[in-house]
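agent> Task received from the user: take the single chain below, predict its 3D structure, and emit structure tokens. No templates, no multimer pairing.
agent> Plan: (1) validate residues, (2) run structure prediction, (3) serialize to tokens, (4) report one or two observations.
agent> Step 1 OK, no nonstandard residues flagged.
tool_call: predict_structure(input=
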Amino acid sequence: MSSLASHDGLDPAPRARVLAVDDHDPFLGALRILIRRTRLLQLVGEAGSGERALEAAHDCHPELILMDVHMSGMGGVAAARAFKARRQAAVVVLISTTPPDELSPQAAMCGAEEILWKSDLRPELLDAMWLRHRPPPTPAGDRQRA
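)
tool_result: status=success, residues=146
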């Protein structure tokens, strides 16, 4: 997948790398557009299930994962638990068509940093959420990947 965000060298930090996970292609398309409209995020991978998200994360090294709660196969709650067990540094945000306060208690206890209602998703909300949960900045030389 090609990068959806470009840098002109003037940004103080690169955009955060996002993995979008949803088992409905139309909503993945909506997430693609939404992320493109943010100031701080760039889409680096997509997956249609929790299992595929775990595989994709290995390849695209996301800093943020936006993942649907209810998916066939491994759902978002189980995938969030598995992902956090493997890679604590990534910010995991569950998204759902069900209002967050109506989800099962397991959703609140799976390790996700936040749960968002899909109806509330806006570019500004995603940017603000990233600013709330992103890891502290590191010196430029420390950010390079091995």
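agent> Step 4: summary for the user.
The first strand starts at residue 16 and ends at 21.
agent> Done.
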